[in-house]
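Structure in, sequence out. Go:
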């Protein structure tokens, strides 16, 4: 074999070039970048945990096709990363691999003033009275889904939570109804199914190789969604600002210079809300139920709180349920749906006492930060009471990211999780149909395997 042209020789040469370009970085594995990429895609939690155990924090990993990743997990370093100058710490650039899914105008992919302007327009529909207005819709959707759950035989809970989360988005974000609602539900389901296949975020897999190939299926389904969105945007502009759905609010929002959002901007932001808000919420709910079925005492405690919150026999959509909230937060701690957040450094920067050169990707590992035993005693244990006993800083607990880039839909997602969990547990007792649940990757999210099978019985 000609070592000069072998894949191994080329990868070793690339690593030497990397080291000459970026200088001395924190230590990390010497495996070829292709091997590190495979481990990162297939078993990200185990890969990062093994790196931290061997090299400490921070450590450096090298993945094929990207600059070196310097990975942090300590609160002080995470504070430096998420509060740094946004013109230096570029989150949009770090998320560039998501452009084929979200579109170039997505707030997740923008930096600088363009990001700040877009974020200002997107914030109002997810705060205050606007948020509370969605509660009754979320509750009605959940109650209808609960009534249709099969009793006393296994079903895939993750599929149920995906259906509920998608219906919530269709009603609160799109404002679709009738036949258009049905068409949009079908095309969005196919879009999300294709987009969440493992590896679809890798550029060389994004090719049209025929109707059965996941990327080809995604492109076709996304075109159908875009066509329906154009119709919805036109309708929203004609009807005026009298509806409560998010799309209608964006159709009438204006930039600071008085110009309205373009159809392309609205489309990309709506798709971003779907991708960021559907899969993440559905997956977090599945992990919460996974933990509750493992501990009937926690499930019973949650039910007692729900029962006590009823008013005249009816559970209000806006009921205060601190323990149910804590279950959702602890599920997001122990099983963060997105494993980390990144910043591409546009200039040299100091993070956690370590000087890094321009060009590298600085990563805050949510998985590792949430397993810090100094912050979370017995970190492997599911213990919702942590969130009743202590308030964690945004640099210790960050399932929705942090700083000026924290997820706009955070309060929407937590509110939705509370309502769905409360209405599920109020009507059903749930038990595991399988304890052999492992973490699997669905594109950028980490989900329970096998659809998270459970068995439901009517609440006694």
């Amino acid at each position: 074999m000609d070592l000069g042209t072998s894949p191994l020789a080329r990868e070793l040469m690339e690593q030497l070039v990397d080291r000459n370009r970026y200088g001395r970085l924190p230590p990390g594995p010497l495996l070829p970048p292709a091997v590190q990429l495979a481990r990162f895609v297939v078993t990200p939690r185990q890969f990062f945990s093994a790196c931290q155990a061997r090299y400490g924090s921070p450590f450096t990993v090298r993945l094929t096709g990207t600059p070196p990743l310097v990975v942090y997990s300590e609160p002080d370093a995470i504070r430096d990363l998420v509060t740094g100058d946004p013109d230096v710490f570029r989150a949009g650039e770090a998320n560039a691999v998501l452009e084929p899914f979200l579109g170039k105008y997505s707030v997740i992919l923008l930096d600088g003033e363009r990001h700040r302007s877009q974020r200002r327009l997107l914030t109002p529909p997810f705060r205050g009275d606007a948020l509370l207005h969605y509660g009754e819709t979320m509750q009605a959707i959940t109650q209808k889904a609960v009534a249709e759950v099969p009793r006393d035989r296994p079903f895939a809970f993750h599929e149920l939570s995906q259906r509920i989360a998608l219906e919530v988005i269709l009603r609160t974000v799109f404002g679709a109804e009738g036949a258009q609602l049905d068409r949009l539900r079908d095309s969005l389901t196919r879009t999300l199914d294709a987009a969440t296949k493992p590896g679809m975020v890798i550029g060389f897999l994004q090719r049209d190789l025929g109707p059965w190939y996941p990327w080809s299926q995604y492109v076709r389904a996304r075109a159908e969604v875009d066509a329906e969105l154009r119709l919805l945007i036109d309708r929203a502009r004609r009807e005026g600002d009298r509806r409560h759905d998010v799309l209608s609010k964006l159709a009438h929002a204006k930039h600071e210079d008085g110009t309205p959002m373009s159809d392309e901007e609205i489309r990309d932001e709506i798709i971003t809300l779907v991708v960021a808000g559907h899969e993440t919420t559905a997956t977090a709910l599945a992990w919460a139920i996974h933990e509750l079925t493992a501990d009937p005492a926690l499930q019973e405690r949650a039910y007692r709180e729900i029962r006590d919150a009823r008013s005249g026999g009816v559970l209000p959509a806006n009921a205060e349920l601190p323990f149910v909230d804590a279950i959702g937060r602890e599920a997001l701690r122990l099983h963060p749906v997105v494993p980390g957040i990144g910043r591409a450094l546009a200039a040299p920067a100091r993070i956690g006492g370590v000087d890094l050169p321009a060009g590298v990707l600085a990563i805050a590992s949510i998985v590792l930060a949430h397993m810090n035993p100094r912050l979370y005693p017995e970190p492997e244990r599911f213990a919702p009471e942590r969130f009743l006993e202590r308030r964690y800083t945004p640099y210790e607990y960050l399932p929705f990211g942090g700083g000026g880039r924290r997820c706009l839909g955070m309060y929407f997602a937590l509110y939705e999780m509370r309502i769905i969990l409360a209405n599920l547990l109020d009507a059903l007792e749930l038990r595991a149909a399988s304890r052999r649940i492992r973490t699997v990757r669905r594109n950028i999210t980490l989900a329970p395997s096998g659809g998270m099978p459970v068995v439901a019985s009517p609440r006694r």
